[in-house]
C-alpha cells in the first residue's frame, strides 16, 4: 500500500540522526513512522512528542501524503540557564506515496499522546468482489 521513493532521503535522515542536527524548513528531519493494514483501512502512526497540534500540517496531493510538523523551544524566562538539551527541535517531515487502492478523500487524523494517527480507508474498487458468470453464449458451428 506504500511505495518508497527516494533512497537518498533515507540516507539524509540517518545522517541527521547521527549528527543530531535540527531540521529546517528547507531540510526537515524525518519522523519515526509505523504503517499497517487494520481491517478495511490502512493506518499510519507518526511519533511527534511535544509537538502542538496546531504545528502539524497534513496534505494529500494526488497520491502523495505529506506530514510536516515543527517542535518549537519551550518558552523560557530570561533567568533560565539550560543545562542539558537532548530533545530535538525544528521541522520534521515525512512524505509517503499512497497506492491507488486507498481512498484519500476520506482520511481521518487523530493526535493523542504525541502520536499522529492517520486512518485511510481501502477504496471500494480495491476490495475483492464476486464476478457473475453469464449463462451460455452463442457459438458458431464449424463446417456444415
UniProtKB/TrEMBL annotation:
Signal sequence interval, chain numbering: none
SUPFAM superfamilies given in the database record: HSP20-like chaperones
SHSP domain segment(s): 24-136
A Pfam family reported for this protein in Swiss-Prot or TrEMBL: HSP20
PANTHER family assigned to the protein according to its UniProt record, in alphabetical order: HEAT-SHOCK PROTEIN 20 FAMILY MEMBER (PTHR11527)
Family membership: Belongs to the small heat shock protein (HSP20) family.
Protein name (database record): SHSP domain-containing protein
Species the sequence originates in: Streptomyces humidus
